[in-house]
Amino acid sequence: MDKNQPFFDPYNFNNMQNNIPQQTPMDPALDNLTNPMMYYEQQYMYYRYLTQVLEYKIKLKELEKLSKEQ
């Protein structure tokens, strides 16, 4: 990797336009990819999915534990 090349910082939205090649998207939904709010929404939805899976596994373990005791 070139030492003069700047590292990619996903939280620096001032530099984001310089890092993304300018092209006209065919689909208007693709235009939202450069929107920082869309990035945070996707991360939040992924976080919610992971927490729901984790809660489900915990409840399943608790149910198995209760069924073994009876």
Supply the helix-strand structural class: mainly alpha
Distance from N terminus to C terminus (CA atoms, Å) equals: 61 Å
Mean pLDDT: 76
Tell me the helix content. Answer: 40-55%
| Rg (C-alpha, Å) | 21 Å
Q: What's the tally of helices?
A: 2
**Strand residues, percent:** under 5%
Number of strands: 0
Categorize the overall geometry.
elongated
Order of helices and strands: HH
Largest sheet: none
Unreliable segments of 5+ consecutive residues: none
Structure overview:
There is one protein chain. With 70 residues, the chain is an all-alpha fold. The protein is built from 2 helices and no strands. The radius of gyration is 21 Å and the shape is elongated.
Write the layout of secondary structure elements.
Blueprint: H1 16-19, H2 36-69
Main features:
mainly alpha
Summarize the structure.
The protein is mostly helical and 70 residues long.
